[in-house]
Design goal:
Elements lengths: L7 E8 L6 E7 L5 E8 L2 H20 L1
């Protein structure tokens, strides 16, 4: 059984394209409040991976 996360990742393209794309990401809690924000430059999958790592760290700190 896998645990359902209470956090949600939202990505937004701020400018550029391809390898120079500037992504802004936000992690929202179950109530829809922004818990953490950040940015990444590069393809969408790399920006999502950066946000996913931050989300996993939040989940680990929450479970302790």
């Amino acid at each position: 059984m896998s645990e359902q996360s209470s956090y949600q990742i939202k990505l937004r393209l701020k400018g550029g394209s391809g390898p120079n794309a500037n992504w802004h990401w936000e992690i929202h809690d179950a109530d829809g409040k922004v818990v953490k924000t950040g940015s990444a430059v590069g393809p969408e999958h790399k920006a999502f991976a950066t946000a996913r790592i931050a989300k996993e760290k939040l989940e680990q700190s929450q479970s302790k």
